Amino acid sequence: MSLAYLLLFLPLSDKYPTYNDIDRIIFAEIPCPQFDKHLHDLVKTHMIHGPCGSTNKYSPCMNNEKCSRYYPKKFQQQTIIEQDGFTTYKRIEYGQTSIKGGVSIDNHSVIPYHPRLLLRYQAHINIEWCNQSTSIKYLIKYINKGYDRITIVIDPLSESTSNTICNAYEIQHYLAYKYISPCEAC
Q1: Are strands 87-88 and 98-100 parallel, antiparallel or unpaired?
Q2: Which residue in 131, 117, 128 sits closest to 17, CA to CA?
């Protein structure tokens, strides 16, 4: 399985400043199967979160009996950007459902996507609108973060080594396990 995180910076002339423009790019609804059966099947396969919550308390996303990804999302007539900078995407309640894990799922549980990307790559592609510098800083830190590493040494305790600190391979360990942020790399 491949995994990629992409952060796209758009020139000012290509930015989408209105909520209606965001609604034309990012979708969080199950498409009608009569209109586009293929897209409906792809959303059902790749872009449905859960089921979790009261229907599946043992889902991996559950933490203290709540979804750590804040699903199910609330219905919204139009996309809005909250005071904290997070985007609440348009999710209209119109009765379109899908069955996943034996549970009927509606627009509450659709992960934001872009139809052309989903049709092209036929894979889970989560699209988010990022509009604050703190969000961008978090994303850059996240996509450049390496795997956490730790080194331990287990030595038998003896009289001859109890007061001696072992510094073998100290430079190699430092280089191998040091996290270098993008700022330091530049």
Answers
A1: unpaired
A2: 131
In Å, how far are 46, 50, 63, 98 from 102, measured between CA atoms?
16, 11, 22, 10
Compute the CA torsion angle 16, 21, 26, 32 (nearest 10 deg): -170
The residue segments making up the domain with residue 56 are: 12-143
Looking at the structure of the chain, the number of domains it has is 1
> pLDDT tens, 36-62?
999 999 999 999 998 888 888 888 889
Q: What is the 3-state composition of the chain as percent helix, strand, coil, each rounded to the nearest 5?
A: 30, 10, 60
In-domain check, residue 148: no
- Burial profile 116-146: b = 16 or more Cβ within 10 angstroms, e = fewer: eebeeeeeebebebbeeeebeeeeeeeeeee
- The predicted model scores a pTM of 0.68
Predicted confidence (pLDDT) per residue in 95-146, tens digit: 778 888 788 889 999 999 999 999 999 999 888 887 766 666 666 666 566 5
Residue indicated by tokens 């199910």? 72
How far apart are the C-alpha atoms of 26 and 35, rounded to whole Å? Answer: 18
Residue 161 falls within a domain, yes or no? no
Whether 170 is covered by a domain: the verdict is no
Bridge partners (DSSP) listed for residue 66: 63
Q: How far apart are CA 98 and CA 153, in angstroms?
A: 52
Residue 119: which of 1, 4, 182, 38 has the closest Cα? 38
